Amino acid sequence: MKGQRTERLVRIASRFMLGPSRHLSLTDLAQDFEVSKTVISDDMEIIHRAFSEEMLGVVDVDRGRSGGAYFVPRVGDELRRKWLGQIAETLSQPERVLPGGFVYYTDLIFDPRIASVLGLIMASNFSSLKPDTIMTSEVKGIPIAMFAAHALGVPLSICRFRNRPSDGPAVAVHFPTGAGDVRTMYMGTRQLGKSKRVLVVDDFMRGGSTVWGMLQMAREFGSEVVGVGVFIASEEPAKKAVPSYNALLTVSGSGDSLKIRVNR
């Protein structure tokens, strides 16, 4: 597959983008493109510099025995503020305000162009924690969580509110809601192993009861929750069921006074 350097750089960069956070062997790349590992290492520097300047991430190179390289998503602050600012502006449109202090965003998170951006930002916030899996709940948490899992190179585990025979044996967790009811959450026993590092991702948090249920689910599997990421969090109530979380956007007020701000 020997060719011009420009073509080789594009091909290698495409492999990084298709498999972020996954190992690419420098030896295999050298063989594929019929060049030396030294040339491939120089290519890594060029691609790393390009990704860094685009504020999309970095290329980490392991020069040990494994001789591998990884594209680690890491959205720059300026690009993050730009993307989230555009989304917040869209969500602030009067026609999106719903009764009860809610805002309509379903069309955005089910648009792959937007969900992929949100997943990339979410992954950037937690990449240093090196989770083994992403956990979310059906249904609207799935798109962002899936793209975050793709960016981090880990699988996605989904908590359901109805047990499905196709999931096989399942673990059930009961948790109270903000309204005082008790809901049940299920996860198939084959989805999540023991002693995993779990990143919980959800689309919206008001009181935090659904996320709290997922924390209990991880505990039932003997896994550790290393972080909680939320697309939108409501400012009220101030006290959540979850002690710590990272929200991309915060919504406050209601009706004509509803405001959405980008969090740092």
TrEMBL record:
PANTHER family: HYPOXANTHINE/GUANINE PHOSPHORIBOSYLTRANSFERASE, PUR OPERON REPRESSOR. Signal peptide: none annotated. The lineage of its organism: Bacteria, Thermotogati, Synergistota, Synergistia, Synergistales. GO terms for biological process: regulation of DNA-templated transcription. The keyword Hydrolase does not apply. Residues 4-73 form the Bacterial purine repressor N-terminal domain. InterPro entries: PRTase-like, PRTase_dom, Pur/Pyrimidine_PRTase, PuR_N, WH-like_DNA-bd_sf, WH_DNA-bd_sf. This is PRPP-binding protein, adenine/guanine phosphoribosyltransferase. Transmembrane segments: none annotated. GO terms for molecular function: DNA binding; glycosyltransferase activity. It comes from the Bacteria. Keywords: Glycosyltransferase, Transferase. Residues 124-243 form the Phosphoribosyltransferase domain. CDD domains: PRTases_typeI (cd06223).
